Write the structure tokens for this entry.
Amino acid sequence: QVQLVESGGGLVQPGGSLRLSCAASGSIFSGNVMGWYRRTPGKEREVVATITSAGNLYYADSVKGRFTISRTYAKNTVFLQMNNLKPEDTAVYYCNFVAGGLVRWGQGTQVTVSS
């Protein structure tokens, strides 16, 4: 089993920054993908950014140039550095782990961008 523990959400003003962290524990196999998704009320969950164990990156167009995803392999932790936050970034952010047929989600952390 794989467990994901997230941290780092909160309230920030427009233009501000936040850093989300997600630590994975359990049976971590190579060849996995970790990432961040978000969901706002009334909308489906959408991908924000992903990073493979080989270091391949993906960003949603809406966050390119503002968000940076990274990971530490020794501790199986993935980070999302969010800069120049906008009100439309307000959402619950979920950490995601995929390896073969195994999919795990974190509990979600609220990010609110408001003045």
Summary: DSSP finds no helices and eleven strands in the chain. The mean pLDDT is 93. The radius of gyration is 13 Å.
